Amino acid sequence: MTYQDDAVVIDNDVFEIIKETFECERATDDSKYRDNLFLKTKDYFVKTDDGSYSIKSRLINNKIETLHTKSGAISESFKKFIDPLKLDYNEDIAILDICAGLGYNSSAAILDFLKHTDNSTNLKIDMVEISPETLAAGMIVPSPIAEHDIVKKAIESELISSGFASLELEKTVIPENIDINVFIEDARSTVQKLEDNTYDAIFLDPFSQTMAPELFSRELFSQFHRLIRDNGIVTTYTSSAPVRGAFLEAGFQIGEGPVFGRFQGGTIASLNPEVLLKSLNINDERRIGLSDVGIPFRDEGLNSSSEEIVNRRNEERAIKRHHSLISSAVKTPIFLGENMDDEPLKRRVERNLAKVNISGVKSEEAYYIIAAQEDYSEKSTYEHNSRERILEMNKRLNDVIDGNF
């Protein structure tokens, strides 16, 4: 089993301790190595505000972060991945959990399912995590909720099956109406094996787009489009413009997710605009539809390296900036139709606009483009939604650039 080193974000030292521990377990079949593993590695974990533990990242850009917000690791799972769901628990439910990490998102989904079902329906969860060490960390961390023990049992079974662990120490029994499959591999490989129209929800929880742009690409989201059911949702913590742009190009409706531990809500995508919590805000729609910042990551063969994907996007931005899209510098598109008292900023904005045939922030061209947002409503419907407004603004920008205005 191999995986890209740069796709793994847990601190390298705790990785080595975990690997050595399970090597000893396999060599001796002695449970003592795993029994004290959390105490041995406790300094690499962080207790968050709700009492649940997160784990430290390796050094990234001269900083060490945690895999979850310090406001509460398990609370984040409920707020960002469970609260947006609008599931019918009278029917069987299927969830795809990408970058399953410590298993918190799946645990929260199980709790929610058990709370709403009378045992007449079934829950299927497919967990995907590239790193066996990360899954092992999820198996040794204290469970923040009882349902996490169910996930631990599923993780242990797969770690034994894959040869990473050897002992069956988890005592929890997985309920008969819950089926958990664990895939220890690159999510890009996993999704290509899965059946169309399968999932009611997809949880997308990579560490960051900087670390793993391959997990936020337009091509991966096209796979999600194939896998998701008509009223299903994809939910992720990030509000990043290229991520939202990738969902848009892949054919999704997009809206804003809940705010928790950050300044801005995440992103929810669906084939049905009416299951979204709310539309994107006006400025986000403009930046995605009109500027180069909304250009997505691309990974045509679903096999490119992170560096190749980032470089490809940078090249595309350079080609389209000032030609088919407005420069994203100083967030230029958000000033269309606005009064600007800051004269130096206004000059910079209008220089960027002039390069795409827009004569000023309050010009006829500017008002023509943003007229696509006249029907703006925070409520997302089939008739009025962020996707339609973004596409219409982009079309109108091209009219202006091509001299057809």
How would you concisely characterize the structure shown here?
The protein is α/β, with parallel strands linked by helices and 405 residues long. It has helices at 12-28, 32-35, 37-41, 73-82, 104-116, 132-140, 147-161, 187-191, 218-227, 241-249, 282-290, 306-320, 343-354, 364-370, 386-401; strands spanning 45-47, 53-55, 93-98, 123-128, 178-183, 199-204, 228-236, 253-256, 267-270. The chain contains 15 helices and 9 strands.
Report on the structure:
The structure is a single chain. With 405 residues, the protein is an alpha/beta fold. It has 15 helices and nine strands. It has helices at 12-28, 32-35, 37-41, 73-82, 104-116, 132-140, 147-161, 187-191, 218-227, 241-249, 282-290, 306-320, 343-354, 364-370, 386-401, and strands at 45-47, 53-55, 93-98, 123-128, 178-183, 199-204, 228-236, 253-256, 267-270. The protein has a seven-stranded mixed β-sheet, with helices on both faces. A two-stranded antiparallel ribbon has the order 1-2. The longest helix has 17 residues, at 12-28. The chain is elongated and about 75 Å long. It starts with 11 loop residues before the first helix and ends with a helix. Mean pLDDT is 93; it is low at 1-7.
